[in-house]
Every structure is written in structure tokens, then in C-alpha cells.
Specification:
single chain, 171 residues, five-stranded mixed β-sheet, mainly beta, globular
Length: 171
């Protein structure tokens, strides 16, 4: 084997991926909700998912497989439920937690999912808006095995008393 001190190539293909272009950064897929129930696929892993309407909307995660991950961001003040839910209730679940801050009071709180992974739903901004209905909410979910999604996030609630966004059903 020789040395490659001056190797030049016009086109490089590795594992059927053309590497001849210039990589200038990472741009992730953006999935806008539009006020519907969007069912995500494993092929969309890494996507930024936007709650982009004030009305009721939801995202359903695919079956967990280690390494799948999604970031959810609320872009408007919610007037109805914004929901993140697992693919198979009572089988898949959430682990981890979120920090919440009130947008109208000098209060904050921390919330954790049930330690056994039994929570199936994250509800942001239901009618009281105490579970995080503010624009700028950000929730990250990463599958850590074939049953659980690790969660971390920062949510903005409205009012003096914040409430957990985690539940076994939509709140």
C-alpha cells in the first residue's frame, strides 16, 4: 500500500452516498403540524417537529428503536392541546423530565415522567395552559431501547401554578 499524499478525485461515492459536494453544516428535516395528528416514521428521526398552530394538534412517535430522536418546538401560544404521544399505549413510554417556567408569575417547577416508563402522553398547553402552552417550548425525545423514550425539555406555562405535562392519557 502506498501513501496518498496527493490524492485527488472529482467524485467520491461511499455506500451509495455521493460525497463530492461541500458539506457546510447540518440542516434537519422540519415537520410542520398544521393542526392535525402527524404520525412520525423512523425515517424522520432527527426531525424538528413544529406545533405551528394554536389549535389542537399532535405528533405520534414511531415505535422506539435505540437512537431515534425528535425535537418538538411550539411556535405559537397554544389555545388547545399540543400532544406528543407514543406509538403503542401501555407498552411504550416516557422517562426523564422537563423544567417549566411561568410566563406571568415568578415561578418555576420541575416535572418527571413516571420512573417505570408508564406515561404515554405529553400534553403541552391544555385549557389551563399550566402544562406549557407558551411559544418557545422545546421537548427532545430520544429512544433508549425498544420500549422507552428519554425526554428532556423546557416548557413555558401561563399562570401561577404549573402542572406536569406527563400523563397516561391526554390531559
Amino acid at each position: 500500500m502506498g501513501h496518498f499524499d496527493k490524492l485527488q478525485a472529482k467524485k467520491v461515492v461511499a455506500n451509495n452516498v455521493d460525497l463530492s459536494g461541500t458539506l457546510k453544516g447540518d440542516r434537519r428535516e422540519v415537520v410542520a403540524n398544521g393542526g392535525t395528528d402527524v404520525v412520525l416514521s423512523s425515517g424522520q428521526s432527527g426531525a424538528v417537529c413544529l406545533f405551528d398552530t394554536a389549535g389542537a394538534s399532535s405528533f405520534t412517535l414511531p415505535a422506539p428503536s435505540p437512537g431515534l430522536n425528535f425535537t418538538f418546538i411550539t411556535t405559537v401560544l397554544a389555545t388547545a392541546d399540543h400532544v406528543i404521544k407514543v406509538n403503542t399505549e401501555n407498552t411504550d413510554g416516557f422517562l426523564g423530565g422537563m423544567i417549566g417556567a411561568s410566563t406571568t408569575q415568578a415561578k418555576s417547577d420541575a416535572f418527571s415522567a413516571d420512573a417505570d416508563g408508564s406515561n404515554d402522553v405529553i400534553t403541552l398547553g391544555h385549557s389551563s395552559a399550566a402544562t406549557g402552552g407558551g411559544a418557545g417550548n422545546m421537548v427532545y425525545c430520544c429512544a433508549i431501547d425498544t420500549e422507552n423514550w428519554a425526554v428532556m425539555g423546557m416548557i413555558h406555562g401561563v399562570g401561577g401554578t404549573l402542572a406536569t405535562p406527563f400523563g397516561d392519557a391526554q390531559q
